[in-house]
Amino acid sequence: MSSSEILIKARNLTKKFGSFTAVDHINFEIYKGECVGFLGPNGAGKTTTVRMIHCFWPLTEGELYVAGFNVSTQACEIKRIVGVAPQEDNLDPDFTVIKNLQVYARYFDIPKAEATKRAKELLKFFQIKEKQDVLISELSTGMKRRLILARALINEPQILLLDEPTTGLDPQARHIVWDEVRSLRKRGVTIILTTHYMEEATALCDRVLLMDNGKIIEQGNPSALVKKHIGAEVLEIDNDEKLLQTLKAEFPAARFEAFGDRIHVFTMQPHGVFERFLERNSLTHVTIRNANLEDVFLKLTGRRLRD
Questions:
Q1: Are residues 236 and 104 in the same domain?
Q2: What's the rounded Cα separation, in Å, for the pair 77 and 97?
Q3: Whether 183 contacts 156, CB under 8 Å
Q4: How far apart are CA 88 and CA 177, in angstroms?
Q5: What digits encode the pLDDT tens for the residues 148-175?
Q6: Rounded-to-10 torsion of CA 187, 191, 196, 201
Q7: Which of the four, 83, 125, 276, 307, has the lowest number of CB atoms within 10 Å?
Q8: Is the same domain home to 237 and 212?
């Protein structure tokens, strides 16, 4: 449950690597108890932004405050109240599953008995308790991912940073993570995530910040952004020139996008307009679906592949 208290504040936040500007003078605020998603193509700057929030990379220019602490001068204070689940697997392969959590807890001065209690509770929640005494090498990719998430929660953080939290997880494990995120939000934890799964962002985020080329190009509630940029429904049909001309005459204000052998028709008109069109025109290979956040993402950032 978000509040009016600003927990993270960035002003002209910039990060350069040599001559390359990864994050380009961005401004944003994140409120206490809010779940915010940073979205964007590969190389957009979202992961770099998150890494500056938890003091992994220093700022090049600008200001960034986390819970009132300056990331440039008060990194230790910030790290104590933040939990981080990075993209990469950085578990210690020499330790067992539970030992990974117990050793990590030492960085936060958590007593051994309390660390063990928390570790067992987290392993039970993420359904890997039966693996607590095995080495990391014996875990599947999905289990390793869940252990990284458990480790991020060992210090009971005020702020949780999730960088691609469900990459490599099957649908069941992904929903376990979603349930935990929702539970943490209810307890007032502020959550920041990066994700390429638009369904995930829609399901979890109060707001999303869409980045491209190091800048924030749009932000807002996922549903509101879909309504603003796409509308209610999308019509997908085979790419046929004659049919395309008919559709343009029927929907003069619509946006048309050809992708492969299919045409996507986007309209701001309410639900039902496409159904009524199909009632008057017998067509095959037609799909009518709800507009979604992925449509917004592709409209604003394009369909070109990024490295």
A1: no
A2: 27
A3: no
A4: 17
A5: 989 999 999 999 999 998 887 888 888 8
A6: 50
A7: 307
A8: no
